[in-house]
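Quick one: Protein transport protein HofC from Pseudocitrobacter cyperus, structure tokens please.
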Amino acid sequence: MAANQLWRWRGLTLQAEERQGTLWAQNRLQAMLSLQQQGVTALSLRRCPVRPAYWRTAWRCEIIEQLATLLHAGLTLSDGLEMLAQQHPIPQWQALLSTLSKRLAEGSTLSEALRQWPEAFPPLWLAMIHTGEVTGKLELCCQSLAQQQKAQQAITQKVKKALRYPCIILSLAVAVVVAMLGFVLPEFTAIYRTFNTPLPLLTQIVMRLADGVKEHFGLIAVTIMLPFLPGLLLKKEPRWQRFHLRIVLALPVMGRLVRGQMLSHIYTVLALTQSAGITFLQGLETLEDTLTHPHWRDVITRLHQAISQGSPIWQAMEKSETFTPLCLQLVRTGETSGALEQMLQNLADYHSEKTHQLSENLTSLLEPMLLLVTGAIIGTLVVAMYLPIFHLGDAISGAG
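--- reply ---
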């Protein structure tokens, strides 16, 4: 897909009808040839920018869910993709769906056509769609895939919201404090000092703090940024990513959120692949392809190696020291009774629900705590700012 370029065209058909659209081609010449094969004489052809943000999960889920509905209604796969291409509001998706439709009309399978677009369709999609083609249950696989992706997207947004809220509140509090220390409080104290009267102790402390911040602002800024510099410089380094995740997982609340979200993803994907008829080892390989963090990839790799060597699934999970005792117990029960798929789905639902509850509880607890902290800080500054004014009458009388 990296060699493809997006082109917007306008031209005339053989019936002299003016039409326009978008298509993918490696260069201008290939784009012109593609239009000629469609019986279109190009009047204008210009290259369009490709936005990676449009390859997000929301659009993929909507497309695959609509495709499942069209297949259930009796449309062929090629006709369904062409219909979706005509209705889609994003030009690069229009061109992609139209390209897929043409590939299918030429005899290619959907999984083979999707394999050429890794940025738009991750490995899990390829595995599920290929399984649907082999088993003849493409409609069901597409529907299950859309539901799984929506559920994971919802829980991801929930966790991000819970972690983002305190950062926003604290940032606003810091901005207010800096504004009051840097601009408001000095004006009040300058007026009060004209009366040659000593400032109240609280005001003096706050002013010294403000002066210290002004004098050593660069050092303070570097000190604050110092813990974040390794993350900015080494964010793509696997060893740093593993070290950073260990720290995050050790945190009381944030660690539980991150762990719960990832365990929910792991069990959901494994349950989905089991329901589609994919073997557990193949499901682990598919799961590993969906993970981006090296720590979780290492966990699944070790799990795959242990199971392939003959170890039971629950024992392999126990050796990884990542999964909870409840996980081990349910997986062992499912493996023994032959209901592994159901147990994996139960674990996915359990961790998803727990993560939702934890994120909601975190938000409800952080809100009053942050309000108290920010209120105390800003209240102290306001008192320090207005305390000299309370004694202004005495100062004027003394000056008179």
